[in-house]
Amino acid sequence: MSVMPFHLAIPVTSLSASRGFYADLLGCEQGRSSEQWIDWNFFGHQLVTHLVAAMPSRPAPNNVDDKAVPVPHFGVVLKMHDWQRLANRLQAAEIEFVIAPYVRFKGQPGEQATMFLLDPCGNALEFKAFNDMDQLFAS
Question: Quick check: 52 pLDDT over 90?
């Protein structure tokens, strides 16, 4: 099965701050836009940031691998070298991580590199990578 791009629309309280984060920090290409929203090429997927007056309240996090994982969150699975390059760029930019880059489930099924951060409006993102992509859905 070939994987098609997903489409995700998220709320933001500042399109300017979103531009700084998604374009300048993450390197996402901007697509169509208006005064109310911006389309982004989010690692080959369509992410739309929609301007809202206030962000919705966030539920309590879930405990995974002894870490407080923010819910909801979204992100992408990258190749390991791309994940490491992004982690290095974010660390060099002194981004405050919700969960700093590390390897989760080390030596177990589903071993993965992961990191969590918030965009300027509080949307939680996860970036992950596997040395063995067959482990993506390992149980």
Answer: yes
